[in-house]
Amino acid sequence: MHALYVIPIVIFKFKNNYEDTVARGRILPTIKESFQMLGTFGLFVFALTIFRSADMSQAVQYLGEIFSISLFSYPQVLPFELLVLLLVFMSMESVGREQYFAIETFYLKWPRLLRWTFHYAVVISIFYFHGKDQ
Asked: Residue 96 in contact with residue 104, Cβ under 8 Å?
């Protein structure tokens, strides 16, 4: 599967111009960068679905269920806490996207007690929201 992504790059001699961080020095990425990120994410999820399936028929069935008409219906379960947690983590990732990892310089000037509280809050939220079957 990886070769299917790399072969067109080799054949058409595309240069890798995307070695820099997306939206460096800006708050939001451009429309083009947003579509490039969505495309990369889509290819990754597609490949992951195929590799995690037992066989191709199961992968096709699974992808068919994802892209069915229910994709556009309102979800039956909408956990507010999970959405808030997702927003917090995505904000932290956005602030720290130019560092090696997201919270590398996020809170360096905070007092020690506040930093430890932050660490404990992250760990507790991970345990609170973990999946039951994992």
From this structure: yes
CA 31 to chain centre: 18
Model confidence pLDDT, tens digit, residues 88-134: 888 887 777 777 777 777 777 889 899 899 889 888 888 887 776 65
N-term to C-term CA, the chain: 26
8 A C-beta contact, residue 23 and residue 29: yes
Q: Rounded to the nearest 5 degrees, what angle is found at the Cα of 42, between the Cα atoms of 36 and 43?
A: 90
Q: CA separation (Å) from 31 to 22, 23, 34, 35, 38?
A: 11, 11, 5, 6, 11
Provide the whole-model pTM: 0.57
